[in-house]
Amino acid sequence: MEKETVDLVISDMRMPHMSGAEVLEQIRNKWPDMVRILLTGFSDISATIAAINRGEIYRYIAKPWNDDDIVLLVRDALERKICWRRNGGWKS
Sign of dihedral through CA atoms 74, 77, 80, 84? Predict the structure, then answer.
């Protein structure tokens, strides 16, 4: 991501050294325009909501997921990113 443009990242909530929410929060801090999606198997909705708020996550996907749903979600996110880019980014 330091050398290449990345429009979208998907992270699992459970990872060995930090949570996916922490990863996405760090990504948001360095690349705020990158679309962030979180995969989670947690049944604890409060942890998921906190993750969404901290990382400003576009969407979360509950495990187990439907592959077709993920494809549609990623397509929608990237289409929104293209529109955002064409319109000059976020406007105040």
Answer: negative
According to DSSP, residue 87 is labeled T
What Cα–Cα distance (Å) separates residue 63 from each residue in 27, 51, 77, 87? 22, 16, 19, 34
- Tally of CA atoms within 13 A in the half-sphere of 35 that contains its CB: 20
Q: pLDDT 10s per residue in the chain (92 long)? A: 778 889 999 998 888 898 888 898 899 999 988 999 998 886 667 777 777 777 688 888 888 889 999 999 999 999 989 888 888 776 54
What is the three-class DSSP state of 86? helix
pTM score over 0.90 = no
